[in-house]
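Long-time lurker, first post. I've been practising inverse folding by hand and with some scripts of my own, and I keep getting stuck on stretches where the structure tokens seem ambiguous. Below is the full token string for one chain I'm working on. Before anyone asks, I'm not after the true native sequence, just a reasonable design that respects the backbone. If someone could post their per-position residues I'd love to compare against what I wrote down in my notebook.
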């Protein structure tokens, strides 16, 4: 994570995906808008007023979940909140990446500052300080079912503010209390309602989903570039990308992808030479607009849901200061994001699936329109790119399993009080894995396409595809004979992930749609 001078001001209503990337990945500081802070104080004061009048409030003067019928006396309401956090921090597995935890903290803060949760300004400030000073909680990956929101991962964040658990701080994993002392902070004691406000809500599954979406939107454009590169390498024909065809079936994504491919291959000597050799290509080339485009449309649907959720209040119960009501509802339920993230997984999996098919054509001399077997000179002695396609096949097959929707599953929790859960957190977690897998598959396709394109020399590819090819060749040389290929594969995946292939192509043809 880099550090930037940017400050993101949160008010609960105007957070953007760009803001999330700035805070999570570039270290932007977070500031709470003054008007939001006033709302936080009003709701906090109401909690105190209600306690003074002995009002019964779920999770404040009662237990949680199936224990909601158990009354808790005034003297133990703070202990109730801290016990909630300690008892719910029971995650297992490897830790979430620091950037993901930063995104989660930002989203939880943005929900809290709406003034419907009852948190105190002091506790809010503690989380802001943790984020801005780089005390990032250790949060195990597994443990949320997306029911009362992400209770387990959010509790792992909250418990560090009590001086318990561990945080990543100055490049090391250290006890939270040690990091707090170094940063000049002190543990907080939770006030009534605060534990519930901190660990209730969909911030974890949405934080994961937000970062995955940002990367997937870039990957979708990159897939167009790499697919166009393979089209050139396989001496494909341009007819399937004619705008007249797509005007008759004007799905937005389809139209955009066809336009992108036309722009990328514009001026291609290769396309010009071979366009009379056949009237159509295989589906993995010819149907790029329809397949890539459908994935793009799915991602736009996901974007609409994520952008709504990052500015929503998702904990329980909710406080309505104007009418002085407190209502117990189900805004914490992860289903509104679980379904989109399952759709995300399917959409991104398909980008990888069709990519592997294009690569398979390049290594098969029966299908590659004149390329040598396995895209290598002296094949037989050399195996060339034979096994890179195996790697793609393995990863694509893994994605097919991961793309099974999580949201169709449900395991009742809390003694059947929470009798339908969303599994939205797992939907987001596995969607991220699908995304990382797709980047690998497209990286190998880029590596293969650059290798294949060299066999068309001295003919040049189109403006955009030639620029993408050049970006690959700046890092990865032509493979003359068999060598240790793993470093080249890793470099190619990095070029996809860091956006260099896409930026090179866009530098030549302008921003892609």
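-- Answer (accepted) --
I ran through it position by position. Result:
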């Amino acid at each position: 994570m880099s550090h930037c001078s940017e400050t993101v001001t949160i008010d609960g209503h105007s957070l953007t995906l760009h803001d999330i990337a700035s805070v999570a990945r570039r270290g932007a500081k977070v500031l709470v808008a003054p008007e939001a802070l006033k709302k936080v104080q009003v709701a906090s004061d109401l909690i105190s007023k209600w306690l003074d009048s002995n009002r019964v409030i779920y999770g404040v003067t009662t237990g949680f979940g199936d224990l909601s019928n158990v009354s808790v006396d005034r003297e133990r309401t703070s202990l109730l909140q801290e016990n909630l956090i300690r008892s719910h921090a029971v995650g297992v597995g490897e830790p979430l990446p620091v950037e993901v935890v930063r995104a989660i903290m930002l989203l939880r803060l943005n929900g809290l500052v709406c003034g419907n949760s009852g948190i105190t300004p002091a506790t809010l400030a503690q989380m802001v300080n943790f984020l801005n000073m780089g005390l990032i909680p250790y949060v195990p990956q597994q443990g949320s079912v997306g029911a009362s929101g992400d209770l387990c991962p959010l509790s792992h964040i909250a418990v560090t503010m009590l001086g318990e658990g561990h945080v990543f701080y100055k490049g090391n994993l250290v006890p939270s209390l040690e990091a707090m002392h170094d940063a000049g902070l002190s543990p907080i004691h939770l006030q009534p309602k605060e534990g519930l406000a901190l660990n209730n809500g969909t911030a974890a599954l949405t934080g994961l989903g937000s970062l995955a979406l940002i990367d997937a939107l870039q990957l979708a454009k990159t897939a167009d570039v790499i697919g166009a590169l393979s089209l050139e390498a396989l001496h494909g024909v341009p007819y399937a990308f004619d705008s007249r065809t797509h005007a008759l079936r004007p799905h937005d994504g389809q139209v955009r992808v066809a336009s992108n491919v036309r722009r990328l291959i514009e001026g291609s000597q290769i396309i010009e030479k071979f366009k009379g050799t056949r009237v159509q290509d295989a589906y993995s080339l010819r149907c790029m607009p329809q397949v890539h485009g459908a994935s793009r449309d799915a991602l736009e649907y996901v974007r609409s849901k994520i952008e709504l959720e990052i500015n929503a209040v998702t904990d329980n119960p909710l406080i309505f200061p104007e009418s002085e009501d407190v209502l117990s509802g189900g805004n914490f339920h992860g289903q509104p994001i679980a379904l989109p993230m399952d759709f995300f997984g399917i959409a991104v999996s398909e980008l990888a699936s069709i990519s592997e098919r294009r690569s398979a054509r390049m290594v098969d001399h029966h299908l590659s329109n004149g390329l040598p077997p396995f895209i290598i000179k002296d094949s037989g002695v050399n195996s060339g790119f034979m096994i890179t396609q195996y790697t793609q096949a393995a990863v694509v097959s893994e994605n097919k399993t991961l793309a099974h929707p999580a949201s169709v599953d449900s395991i009742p929790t809390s003694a059947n009080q929470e009798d339908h859960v969303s599994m939205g957190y797992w939907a987001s977690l596995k969607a991220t894995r699908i995304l990382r897998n797709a980047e690998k598959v497209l990286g190998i396709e880029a590596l293969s396409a650059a290798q294949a394109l060299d066999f068309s020399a001295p003919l040049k590819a189109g403006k955009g595809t030639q620029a993408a090819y050049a970006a690959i060749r700046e890092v990865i040389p032509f493979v003359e004979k068999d060598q240790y290929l793993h470093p080249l594969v890793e470099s190619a995946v990095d070029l996809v992930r860091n956006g260099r292939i896409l930026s090179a192509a866009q530098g030549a043809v302008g921003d892609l749609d």
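A couple of notes from the structure itself: The longest helix spans residues 203-233. The two ends are 28 Å apart (CA to CA). Happy to go over any region you disagree with.
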